[in-house]
């Protein structure tokens, strides 16, 4: 890889629907993104990743695309998009698009034709199977709580959808389909886009989901025979690199569920020429009861978090590259999840940032994370719009007869809508997001948690993020250096060292509401330690024992 600029970049993720509305329709738009570019620049980010902005019926808020080479009307026009690119350029910001290539909307012209004409070449762009005497070809169930097969009357066959019913899976076995996708990718990169985020790459190779007919009858009893990251995924990615990425100086990042660090190394190891980096989910699954769904919440064990983050740091230390993220549009707000959204909201939001972003990798900051935005307190299902949330509610309450309050408790902890409430810009009506009716309710705490307020408060989470990003740049070499976890068994403190070129950096975080005693490791000279960052006032000198206050974090530089 000639130019690894993405290794030094900080990425800011925008969910355009909820970012900034400028025409009063209650939905964010591209002009709104342009209006807020200075805010992103001032934060210190270098790259923007924007979630899908293509035409879509919005069953899954843009992840159900009908045309990969156009702009959704409610977001604006292609001209607006070009202006966005130009405005990014003029500020030295790069722009990464989100690309959904595991599936299309069933409203996509390819699918429409496939549905109507079994002899069309587009039929082979998707998966079609005859049913069995009992109905669908297999009894596989998706994360959206339904069969992954949908009967289509016109041809009397079922099509595969690993996500919602209206998201039909593309057949990556078909080389012609793959070429069509590469063409669409090049369309955006030729415009000067700086990279692509690939949605659900772990689902692209599905050979193993679709065994021969007799086999899948035999496997009907198997409740979850899905094998993500299937056999041919690496061939597809190598081909994609050859056909697309190798022709541009761009970054690539893939969403990869169910991957281990070993597989992460194959995806991102530079010798393999697949992707620059991937999003794994191992740290996001630590508050989920083993073997159950992400709705089934359990408290986080700090030792699990240390193990997972350390594993990824160590296994990708010499080859490959990590993403560093707590939040995105699919995850609840981290401060409500692993921190404290009440008394210690600011302290814990800052602590979580310092804990993660001094690791090696590319940080991804999701809109509002830099303000310490929290989960929404919505306790009525009517206030949620996310299809996964609504489907789960109906399934658990109406089909399974589960207790409504218990189901609402899961939703209040884990719904994707917590990340999607409108961005909180200021204390005016609708948090300055829209002058109309927002498509999703604003979190009522916007009067106190908002960007305008944070900009004026030297102690805000926002100003802490700014400082942290400046430090990351200043100490880029040591942050790319070797990683050592200290105190692996301490139940409250997460402590690690980074080392390179005779410099050492130590990040110490109290991930608890109680005080915690920290003793400097043998051989260190606390007296010479320089405090680079902390989230409490009067952080004090580097005595041999420091009492860390609730959610306190400190980062020191040791000569
Ligand atoms: C992952 C995306 O991040 C999520 O929002 C979407 O629902 C699924 N992929 C399906 O495209």
From TrEMBL:
Q: Which reaction does it catalyse?
A: Hydrolysis of (1->6)-alpha-D-glucosidic linkages in some oligosaccharides produced from starch and glycogen by alpha-amylase, and in isomaltose
**Known CDD domains for this protein?**
AmyAc_SI_OligoGlu_DGase
Which part of the chain is the Glycosyl hydrolase family 13 catalytic domain? Answer: 13-420
User: Which terms are listed as keywords in the entry?
Assistant: Cytoplasm, Glycosidase, Hydrolase
Q: Which GO terms describe its biological process?
A: oligosaccharide catabolic process
Please state where this protein is localized: Cytoplasm
What is the recorded name of this protein?
oligo-1,6-glucosidase
Q: State the species of origin.
A: Bacillus amyloliquefaciens (strain ATCC 23350 / DSM 7 / BCRC 11601 / CCUG 28519 / NBRC 15535 / NRRL B-14393 / F)
